[in-house]
Specification:
The complex is a heterotrimer of chains A (269), B (272) and C (450). With 269 residues, chain A is mostly helical. Chain A has a single domain (25-252), classed as Phosphate transport system protein phou homolog 2, domain 2 (Methane Monooxygenase Hydroxylase, Chain G, domain 1), CATH 1.20.58.220. Helices cover 78% and strands 0% of the residues of chain A. The radius of gyration of chain A is 22 Å and the shape is elongated. Chain B has 272 residues and is α/β, with parallel strands linked by helices. Chain B is 34% helix and 25% strand. In chain B, α7 links the parallel β8 and β9. In chain B, the strands form two sheets. Chain B has a seven-stranded mixed sheet, sandwiched between helices. A four-stranded antiparallel sheet of chain B has the order 3-2-5-6, with helices on one face. Chain B is built from ten helices and eleven strands. The longest helix of chain C is centred in the first third of the chain and has 45 residues, at 24-68. Classes of the chains: A mainly alpha (269), B alpha/beta (272), C mainly alpha (450). Chains A and B meet through α1 and α4 of A and α8, α9 and α10 of B.
Amino acid sequence: MITDKIINNSSGFTTKLYLDKHISRRFNEELEQVRTLVMNMGALVEQQVNDGLSALLNADLDLAQKVIDRDNDVNNMELEIDEYCTKILARRQPAASDLRLIVSVIKSITDLERMGDEAVKFGKNAIKLAKGNLSENSCSENSFAETEGARPLIELKHLGNHVSKTLNRALTAYAQMDVQQALIIIKDDKIIDEEFDNNSRLLVTRMMENPREIKNALRVTWCARALERIGDHTTNLCEYIVYLVEGKDVRHGNMNRIKVTPPPLEISV
Amino acid sequence: MKNLDIKQVELTETVGNIYADSAKMSIRNADVYYGSKQAIHNVSLDLAKNQVTALIGPSGCGKSTFLRCLNRMNDTIDICNITGEFTLDNQDIYAKNLDPVLLRARVGMVFQKPNPFPKSIYDNVAYGARIHGLTNNKAELDEVVETSLQKAGLFNEVKDRLKDPGTGLSGGQQQRLCIARTIAVSPEIILMDEPASALDPIATAIIEELIDELKEKYTIAIVTHSMQQAARVSQHTAYFHLGKLVEMGKTEDIFTHPKHKLTENYITGRFG
Amino acid sequence: MINLKDNSKINKMSSTARTTTLSTTEKVTLSLKKRHQKERRFKNVGLFAVLFGFMLVVVLISDITAKALPAFHQHWVKIDMDYKANWLNIDGSSKQSILAKQMKKANYRSALKKSLYLMFPTPSGKSLSRKDKRQLFKLFSSNAEFTLKDTLITTPEHLNKQISVWVRLDDDVDSYLKEGFASGEAGLRLSKQQAQWIKQLASAQRIESRFNFSFFTASDSREPELAGIRGALTGTLLTLFVTLLLSFPLGVAGALYLEEFAPKNRWTDFIEININNLAAVPSIVFGLLGLAIIINIFGLPRSAPLVGGIVLTLMTLPTIIISSRAAIKAVPPSIREAALGLGASKMQVTFSHVLPQATPGIITGAIIGIAQALGETAPLLMIGMVAFIVDVPTSIVDSATVLPVQIFLWADSPERAFLAKTSAAILVLLTLLLVINLTATVLRSKFEKK
């Protein structure tokens, strides 16, 4: 009778994911486990990004080394989740939302792993920047950081904060399967791109002004580039959220397909 | 026989797309009653030409009943009462002047349990051609038997023992014999009621491969309990629930992002 | 904390409960002995029932066989027959053709008597007394004179010669020789003098026991030593032929119609109930029906296998219909569906698939019905098949009787020799039954192979 009602009031459209309620309780547990693992990996990657950033900004060599070392954990987690997903695919042959969950997880962890790699770049560059400044320029210990070169790093800090916040929002959306939030984040990626462009322009100007600083400026550019990449990976994560929940692929400018989604958002696509 | 226009019906209960670009068979507003019990509620759908349409759903959802309406096999059940429009190439198959014998020659059926006649392999395949008088002489009949067995992928296995009883074959071979028997009448549509449910995975795979080949020439509707099978062999999938057609659409859509909660629950193995 | 405590309490309780009660294995072991005992007891009871039934059959068959054995042989006696022309009242000098005619009309009885008196001269040389003469003549079968006649006609040159001829002994003498009871006893039809003569004949090697062919070649007779079952057997076969011819096609057609074609409604339910009831109607009622309608209204001949067959058809039809329907029902519906799905018409489905599949079952049912008809007496009594008929019937409209009725008639006869004949006829009936059942089994396996 209950099912009848669902049919009759035509509210039977799948608008929300239910990971539980499988007839097989083991399957529920396995899917929950996969999600937990992904969220753990997300948390670790977020920490890596944040730590990498602060190591870079504060020239914290210990923290930088820590970030480099911890990348191994991220890689191992990717392998573990990959294997777990393969096992579920082989044993459960998931369909529909379960299938989408597994597919999105497999894709998400690749993006998360890449973000981890980008965080390692922060660490490496932080060490190189610090060491380069120490050996080459004894007169100005942290010239790039505090003297006239402070501007690009401040810009970088700005960009970093933004990306870090976006990543945090994306992971929250991932945990809550929040499509609307995800769509907002996808749209907000443009802001990150614009900030990166500004940053690049500034650094190019700086390099032209002071050719001696080219080496360092390039390092900062690479870090900015890494931040931009993290932003892109975050966008990918959000696209997987939409795919997971709505079953629609919004990658590569397919955003207009999502128009049919019932609650209209403030985004104009 | 008058030609009927395929009506565009208002979908009140079905989500997705029931229409096919080139429909071989169209069913509109079908209701089936067993006595006072209604088994099928207002089902409308098209069977796309030269494609495989899978009917899935939990036990007792009416998918087999629906399938049996398509070649009037339910006529043999006295208490079964069918209303709605069933058209094959725009001809009403429940028209008073249409002989069900003719219809069944055009719409063949393969059953869940392999049910070869207790006769020789040759006679099994030749039976349909014989009763309908499709061949003029023995040579023609031999050819029909051979090509049918070949189409069913069975000829090489049985060519040396055509006189042996069909019941002596293995389960998978028996089912292919039944398919060959159906093909021998050269129908336009083949209805399959869980054709592989009694077979082992290898035999199942062979049957599925066969279905894929057969769709080049025939329009196929298959009832199956195995969702993987539906996903593998069909181009369109219709999900039945409690006698209603809940959702119909392209198979890949149904199995990746079904629109209806009930479909989702069924194909992912959740509580309804 | 409270929860934890509660849990531990429960755990403790359950563990104590486990130690005081027995484990599953122990419980099962305890009950196992009892269960095995029950099983053994039931097996023994079943075995006893089977053995008891088997024993009864063995006792019955051996008793009947023992009683029937004497009927299969018969004593013959060699007498010295004088075919004297004047005794036979024949003119020996007449022409061959006239002689043959005269031989047919000759008085063999008196010639036999005179020959016998010569065979048994009195010690004093006087002729026998009238009583002795009568007693002596009674030692021989009333058929003896005909045996003599046949012998002379086949070999006319024996005329006026003394020839040794084998003739049958009377049934009383036959019984006396077979059973060897004391002569002259009360209730026995053999005097001391007769016994004396028999002894004399036996010691002279003149008495011989032969296989009783006439039991199978002769028809009924008032004289036990002459009575045979050929007439009854032929009557039975003719009646069964008519029964089979009518009831098999009718029964199968009826069953097929009811199972495959008839709509399921009140009418068919009503018919089904009636058929089931018909199977339980006492058979004598069918006999009355046959008498009232078939003989009185349609005017068919009385005592004829045709009428008997019709009456038995009425009786066996329900059995055949019911068993045929069961056999048809047992044909898997998948076969019907397969044929229907190929576009076979109902008729084609029925005759090319259902009927061949149901044939073994239908044959079994038909045989049961025929076997039932084979042993039926009551309805045949009503239509006059109980008459004393000496001729062997040659067509289905001749007067005839059937084996069970013959058995009934013989069992009713006072002559001692008919006792053995009755048992022998029963044996023949049982053999016929066996043959029919064997045929059924052979047919069945043949159809099942297909």
